[in-house]
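Need Glycosyltransferase 2-like domain-containing protein's 3D structure for a figure. Predict it.
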Amino acid sequence: MAPPPPNYEFQEWWNKERLKAHGFLSPSAPHSPLPATAAGYASFDSTAVEIGTPTTPADGGKFRGRSPRQLSWFLLLRLLGSALLLASLPSRLFGLLRTAARRISTLTHRPAPASRLYRLIRGFLVLAILLLVLELIAYFKGWHFNPPSYASSAEALEFIYANWLMIRVTYLAPPVQALANMCIVLFLVQSVDRLVLTIGCFYIRLRGLKPVSLVEYGSAGDLEGANTINVDEYPMVLLQIPMCNEREVYQQSIAAVCIQDWPRERMLVQVLDDSDDVEVQRLINTEVQKWQQKGVHIIYRHRLIRTGYKAGNLKSAMNCDYVKDYEFVAIFDADFQPAPDFLRKTIPHFKGNDDVALVQARWSFVNKDENLLTRLQNINLSFHFEVEQQVNGIFINFFGFNGTAGVWRIKALEESGGWLERTTVEDMDIAVRAHLCGWKFVFLNDVKCLCELPESYEAYKKQQHRWHSGPMQLFRLCFFDILHAKVSLFKKANLIFLFFLLRKLILPFYSFTLFCIILPLSMFLPEAHLPAWVVCYVPGIMSVMSILPAPKSFPFIVPYLLFENTMSVTKFHAMISGLFKFGSSYEWIVTKKLGRSSEADLVAYIQKDPEPIVESSIHRSSSESGLTELNKLDVTKKAGKAKMNRLYRKELALAIILLIASVRSLLSAQGIHFYFLLFQGITFLAVGLDLIGEQVS
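Structure prediction for Glycosyltransferase 2-like domain-containing protein:
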């Protein structure tokens, strides 16, 4: 039998669909001719197979149907790709287990002293193991279907199980159920708060609300040829870059601040170096001298006595005599890179608004797609800026200062008491005191400042501990100041109940208690029940709302929900430490940066400004790049402590507890509870083995 004549209808249709998806072909013109470069092939991404398509012969108007053979091959290739993916899962799982085993076997560092929370979790773990053994014995003996009587128990195990039933029904289940009900109420209150904020964000977008400045400042380049613009109309601005041992990122931050599109005679850059590494001090000082030779007004400051951490550094800088000549101060952490027009977009919002103390810009992340950990952080922070900061800024003119990428009116800083060293959240401290003095804040959602997210779980965990212990320190210190402040009752209620209690204390409390303690405990106490909508449906809805500001992260919605519950351990521990003044609450550890964006910025700067530098050399960041331009530089790298992945005991203990509880839930045939406990336990296990975030080989 002769083969059927070639038919290209299906191939032409597939090419058109691909061009529509890539924007080459408008959907409104489906019969437009295909580009010559695009019509000759069709590529199947999932299988990396290309099928050639010769030129379609002219058939007069002869009818041509789609070939079933081509469609069959296409479906077969897709099926093959899926089969290969499934076939690779065992090898990937084996590699993951091998990595975990190697990590456990090579653990050589001495573990830190056990915290109070870890000792409680460890006791809970022992209790869960004993209860699981007892429940398994009861299950195989049939006591679940015919519970033994307390009076007629003959065997010792039967007597023990009968007593356990009596104790759990009479003494344990009622208080656990009461605690669960309280946490459910707190959970619903916090969910309503999140819903209101989300609705407020939608309203802002629908109405197009945003802060509007009354004046505009031209670029510094326009001043050279324009006689009508007076340089004196530009306010004097102080730009501060506090840093401490920031070897990887000091160049990019200094460069980004020095190239601000603002008259040089109207700005001064302060590099506030608290480094205790002599070589890092020399590198930063050399960089400052380089920019001084280029005509930038920049000075290098180093404190011999490093007290008060960042607050002490900023306080020392503000005590300089020349600060009185400046009207505003912009603050940038060492890994932040403001755009050249940052000052031109923020300073105008102060003009005509004498009651505005702070203009805060939004953060944008250069490494948000680096790994799963940075993607999940991007979801959290996108909601924080897009929803929380923007809504509070539009409707009540108050929000927490983010510590960087913001411009303060120096007069407001001075009237509010200046920088204080009493907590590890000096940014929130000054914001609360300024709000109590009657000052207003402006948040600019459309002004973004590039920065870097922590890529390792260790760095992220330490950052979150500081961010959640500091607010509780501050709440203890300023509670009576809020009550006695001469502000409206609404502002007092907002600060106490919403800003501090609901969003800083209640959130980590119910999250940890409900999902890490009560839920696994209820598997051993069936009389204390958590409904399915608390375990699954409401958290799912809240996760969807949280991910709306970052729509490209929707594929990570389930990992986000599980990871947030995992982080509740760290946040709860930090909250308790700050509230009751435990030792770790005042611990300040600089978040480790990797300088992910420094190479590109440095290369661009070298290409744009190739003039030789009189100083010794330019030192790039310590991260390897392999770029030709960077290889031309004289690189000085200091051998630091070797990095390694760690094991986290609290997370590992809770992982075992949740997995044990999932086994117990199988005996009660609780489907949703079982799957939630299983996947939440696996997530705790992955985090405890440090398998999320940066992996050090």
